[in-house]
Amino acid sequence: MLKRVYFLLGAVATLVVIAVAVAYPRVNHVSANTTTTSIERPDAGQSDSISNSMDARVSSANSRVNMQQQTVETADREAQAVSKLLILTDKANRSLINPGWLYIKESGEGDGDLSGRGSLPNGQDIPINYTSEIWYHFDDQLRVIEFVSIQRDANGQAVQIGVHSNGTSWNSATGETSALEPFVLSTLDYGFAEQATAFAASSQVDEMAVVLNGKPALLFSSLESYPEPLLMAEANQSVVANEGRAYLDPETGQLLQHEIIAHLSDGTQRVVSRVVLEFKPNVIPTAEVLELLASRKPSQ
Amino acid sequence: MKLYIKIWWSLIVTTSLLLGTVGTNIAQAGSSSAGGSVAGIPILATKEIAQTQYTWRAGFESKTLSGTYISVIGRTWWTARAFCESTGLWTNSFQYGGQVEYNSLYWRQISLYYGSCAPGRERLENLGGHDFQHNGQYSSPWPVTVSRSEYH
Lengths: 300, 152
Hints:
The complex is a heterodimer of chains A (300) and B (152). Chain A is an alpha+beta fold and 300 residues long. Chain A contains 4 helices and 12 strands, in the order ααβββββββαβββββα. Chain A has helices at residues 2-23, 50-96, 192-198, 287-296; strands spanning 100-110, 130-138, 143-153, 158-165, 168-171, 177-179, 183-184, 203-212, 215-232, 237-248, 255-264, 269-281. In chain A, strands 1, 2, 3, 4, 5, 6, 7, 8, 9, 10, 11 and 12 form a 12-stranded antiparallel sheet that branches. In chain A, a hairpin with a 4-residue loop joins strand 9 and strand 10. In chain A, helix 2 packs antiparallel against helix 3. Chain B has 152 residues and is mainly β. Helices cover 13% and strands 61% of the residues of chain B. Chain B contains 1 helix and 10 strands, in the order αββββββββββ. In chain B, the strands form 2 sheets. In chain B, strands 4, 5, 6, 8, 9 and 10 form a 6-stranded antiparallel sheet that branches. Chain B is elongated and about 50 Å long. Residues 9-26 of chain B have low confidence and may be disordered.
């Protein structure tokens, strides 16, 4: 009896959803995997015979059923992609975030014509193309109790250094020290999975098996479209959507590469950010890192 | 999977996707305003930060409230920057000089930035001086600073 009630309620609610879907077609999301539906309509020039009228009604009914199926299939596929993404990133977090040291190397590049990063207070540019090495030290509660980050430009010259130790954080470019208590790193995927979930209502998540640098990878993409184009004043360009792409190792779930692709109003697409990542758990920090940490310790 | 469970699951996901089409894409936003006057004309200075999934925007606005045109309106300086607290590194830092309109009642600029912050938290800052001049009087009584910390 209860199942029948559930079924009837579900059916009624689904009909409401279909009515809303017809009233508010989902047009502001674009993806390579978006399915399009063509609705068959009776030709205006056809005779108004009973059989033609019947054909038209059957065709129209079929179209509505197809639309419902495709909407449900798209939603199902998206829900499955988000679910898989969360499972994989959780797996990666569990394998990488453990008591001890974790080393992360980020190799980043961008589109200087479209979006620079600006300059530091000491006048040095934040490089478009850079390498950042980060050493995180986790305690038994999996909190980051200290870290050292070193950002270098394409020539290997250190641009800025960040050190967190003894409840403070220090940046070499400003020389400023601020309070920073031990904190939890909730994820190691640039927040991609969390944000894809949080923004699920306004972005479209997809999944695809690809080959990245000769190795299998799972590509998750999340497209964020804007009701009105966002103006990039300095580049004299407008962005109609931004697409995030996360390439994950299908076995470990670790993030291999992260990209942001701007969809411009002129119809072109540009990679505004690409970061290639490398993770090494249970490492011993280099002498340089240990020296930096020692230099920030309060003098005895 | 039972049919009614399938229907409910599809309903929940589909509804959330449909609602997303009419909702806003701005996830987090904050603004700060301060009023004042120059040569007896009421003025308002506003700064704003809005963050979406992949971008953040800094807005800077100077305007008169009475619809009166004044000699000079704009900014004396402006800084928009993002600090990745989980790495201790600056990811964006833009400094802009003065920029004004003459004989106007309004000056506004919005800049769009792409951040790159590993997980943890990111501090976004929008700070600068507003510029109002009229009848030989000058007013830049702030800066109104907007700062947001986003936890990922």
